[in-house]
Amino acid sequence: MTSSFKALKIAQEQIADLDLQLLKRTLRITQSPCDTKLTIGGRQLKAFCSNDYLGLANHAELVDALAQGGQQYGVGSGASHLISGHSAAHELLEQKLASFQKKHIQNARALFFSTGYLANLATITGLARLAQRGDLSIYSAKLNHASLIDGVRLAGAQMNATVNLFDHTQLNSLTDVLKKDTKSLKLIVIDGVFSMDGDLAPVKALLQLAEQYDSLLIVDDAHGFGVLGKRGYGILEQASIQSDRIIYIGTLGKAAGVSGAFVCAQNSFIEWLVQKGRPYIYSTATPPAIAHTLLKSLEIIEGDEGTKRRAQLNQLIKIWQDEMIFSEWKKVSSCTPIQPVILGSNASTLLAAKLLDEAGYWIPAIRPPTVAPGSARLRITFSANHSADDLRKLIATLNRIEQEVSEKVMHD
Ligand SMILES: *Cc1c(COP(=O)(O)O)cnc(C)c1O
């Protein structure tokens, strides 16, 4: 029996339309743990696409810690944090996360979330409620992550806020708007490391603006936590800045290799989020075994092994910067393990991803709306588990494929 009603027809037509525009996304099923080699459909592929920068997602000590956490705490938390879900493991984890930022945020306290998406929604909408309706301005970088954008949209609608989008490489225009802003509460919202370009936010200059114009500065360091700074504490450590206006957000499913996220700020801001952050209040606490596992991950990040893993990443970044030369494709200036190659059109990016797949690599094509139209790209990411040899082989393959793609696209 086939049924057809309006909503179903629209869904089917829209999906067909996405397919026509080469914008339909597909799920691929991995059959092995996250690492630099992945088994997909029975084939082994070399992966340069995960956010497991330090190579911890399948680290033996973390796998053991998860099993041990399960034995100690069971599998479920059973309730939200404010009911009965806040375990000793969560509490210890929050204290440890706060200690990572204590040099950078006075009286720092951390709050653990099940995902970064949720942390961003809770933080932005929660802090927005420090304002009266209509008395809030939000400044959000144009290339911010979708979860920040959604948080800003929701907070903006809720509080009838003025939302200003700014180019993080052009702070003059941001300054001009801030100068004229008479709202009582201002929030500047920024990615620490831009997830699709790999460049860093000018956090020092933004903090100066926040201080000069009495704003809070929300930094989402999803791709910097664990990677940046001598001890992996993130972008605040790297930039060596300190202020109680900084609201720092880190995720724990990327370099930390596990799952979850946290916000770290001056204690009163965190207490406010506990009271008013709806995504925090109305969501079941993450399994305590995850928090227990994360404690081990943080120990690795700030210890000698973390230092070695960051050094390996830096070696890979240097090799890429020195040895990868494209004739037409565009590299982005990035000093992080995110090294995108911009091809522009969806068709050539899909073709390049397909040729890479045939050559045994998994590097998916990133297309709009994740990136701006006309800037489709291969988002190449490094892991500390990649060797210099792995990277040099990828570089050779990319050079070969660039030629093949330009020949094919010319003949189309
Ligand atoms: C991945 C990411 C998030 C979301 O974090 P999850 O824990 O995956 O939900 C938020 N912000 C940025 C910049 C990200 O890259």
Features:
Aspartate Aminotransferase, domain 1, four-stranded antiparallel beta sheet, binds pyridoxal-5'-phosphate, 2 domains, Aspartate Aminotransferase, domain 2, globular, 412 residues, 14 strands, 8-amino-7-oxononanoate synthase activity, seven-stranded mixed beta sheet, alpha/beta
Brief overview:
The chain is α/β, with parallel strands linked by helices. The chain has helices spanning 6-20, 60-73, 81-85, 88-101, 116-128, 146-159, 171-180, 203-212, 235-239, 267-276, 278-281, 288-302, 304-323, 346-358, 388-411; strands at residues 37-40, 43-47, 108-113, 136-141, 162-166, 185-191, 216-220, 246-251, 261-266, 330-331, 338-344, 361-362, 365-366, 376-381. The chain has two domains: 26-55 and 304-411, Aspartate Aminotransferase, domain 1, CATH 3.90.1150; 60-302, 3-Layer(aba) Sandwich (Aspartate Aminotransferase, domain 2), CATH 3.40.640.
Explained architecture:
- InterPro entries: Aminotransferase_I/II_large (IPR004839), AON_synthase_class-II (IPR050087), PyrdxlP-dep_Trfase (IPR015424), PyrdxlP-dep_Trfase_major (IPR015421), PyrdxlP-dep_Trfase_small (IPR015422).
- GO terms for molecular function: 8-amino-7-oxononanoate synthase activity; pyridoxal phosphate binding.
- Pfam families: Aminotran_1_2.
- Its cofactor is pyridoxal 5'-phosphate.
- By secondary structure, the protein is an alpha/beta fold.
- It has 2 domains: 138 residues, Aspartate Aminotransferase, domain 1; 243 residues, Type I PLP-dependent aspartate aminotransferase-like (Major domain) (Aspartate Aminotransferase, domain 2), CATH 3.40.640.
- It is built from 15 helices and 14 strands.
- It has a 7-stranded mixed sheet with strand order 3-9-8-7-6-4-5, sandwiched between helices.
- Helix 6 links the parallel strand 4 and strand 5.
- The two termini are 41 Å apart.
- The relative contact order is 0.15.
- Bound molecules: pyridoxal-5'-phosphate (PLP).
- The site of pyridoxal-5'-phosphate has 14 residues, from helix 5.
